[in-house]
Write a structure and sequence with these properties.
By secondary structure, the protein is α+β, with helices and mostly antiparallel strands. Helix content is about 15%, strand content about 40%.
């Protein structure tokens, strides 16, 4: 059953010292546990330190009995670059609208390029002496860290598509990877019919339709995503456009989007030629084409995150 309760998430250290704490909203409960949504702009704090603001939001999964909690980030933070961050902690204790967990130092992370790491082992070793962790807690912590590391390395659920699907549904962000295109949009493919690229010919028509093409490069960024885009309400739809003499007319749709590279988000548009009218240069259903301003450090193989306005399009999760 879908619920919508606001809860306070409260981590402490072993001695009861307040650690990370913030508010979240329960969006679902299923076999994996309780799914919490932290909206963009939410404040969070470590102990009594000054508040920090989460820019893009995240989804937090708290299992019913497991000694861990998993953060699925909409966009990897610039400082840590973690796509998924699993905190090894005591089993969650629910008390009314507060869920409490004891942080046990070890963490497992998944980076955008797929690297899985076990981190903070030095902190765990130091705290065994400082806090006097019982032997069974030490063993359980290490055992859980190993199990989580192996599960995320195999993409076992909820570390396969379940967590990323929640982020897509709740926040509109999905992780992806830049892939090679046909080179038609930019002209790099060498097609003599449009040596400067199809976009150079299409942009004047798009501008007449009110699309601010001056902000974008005359090339598309092609991104392979784990979920297929489902169009709903495009910000613009141009039907049966005759953009080149002798070439079949095409219908185009546009959706507000962002692409995040190395934690920095850039506004853009999903550029979607309607497959029903696209005569050639088709793309797999899992690939989206983006119009964006110049973006440094991007090319085939670059891991990125893509946002599409949930009011305009969704993802088939």
């Amino acid at each position: 059953m879908l619920v919508s309760d606001t809860v306070h998430v409260r981590y402490t250290k072993w001695d009861g010292t307040l650690h990370w704490h913030f508010d979240a909203r329960i969006v679902d409960r299923d076999d994996h546990g309780t799914w919490l949504l932290v909206e963009p702009g939410t404040a969070y704090r470590r102990g009594e330190e000054p508040e920090r603001i989460d820019e893009h939001g995240f989804v937090l999964l708290i299992p019913e009995t497991g000694w861990w909690s998993a953060y699925f980030n909409a966009v990897p933070r610039r400082s840590s670059r973690h796509l998924v961050y699993i905190d090894i902690n005591s089993a969650a204790r629910w008390d009314g609208n507060t869920v409490s967990l004891i942080d046990l130092d070890l963490d497992v992370t998944l980076s955008p390029d797929g690297e899985v790491r076990l981190i903070d082992e030095d902190e765990f070793e130091a705290h065994q002496g400082l806090y006097g962790y019982p032997r069974d807690v030490i063993e359980k912590t290490r055992e859980t860290a190993t199990q989580v590391f192996d599960a995320i390395s195999r993409s076992d659920e909820p570390f396969g598509t379940a967590g990323f699907g929640r982020v897509a549904q709740q926040l509109g962000w999905v992780p992806g990877q830049v892939v090679e295109g046909h080179g038609a949009a930019s002209g790099s493919g060498g097609d003599a019919r449009f040596p400067q690229g199809t976009l150079a010919l299409q942009f004047p028509h798009f501008a007449k339709a009110g699309i601010a093409v001056e902000h974008y490069m005359p090339a598309t960024i092609n991104v392979a995503l784990p979920f297929q885009l489902i169009p709903r309400n495009p910000i613009s739809r141009i039907e049966h456009l005759a953009w080149l003499d002798g070439y079949p007319t095409e219908t185009f749709e546009f959706f507000d989007s962002k692409i995040a590279v190395a934690g920095v988000a850039h506004r853009g548009l999903v550029y979607r030629p309607d497959p029903a009218t696209k005569p050639e240069f088709s793309q797999p259903g899992s690939v989206v084409e983006l119009l964006a301003p110049p973006v440094d450090g991007i090319g085939p193989g670059t891991p990125v995150s893509v946002w599409v306005d949930p009011g305009q399009a969704g993802f088939e999760v």
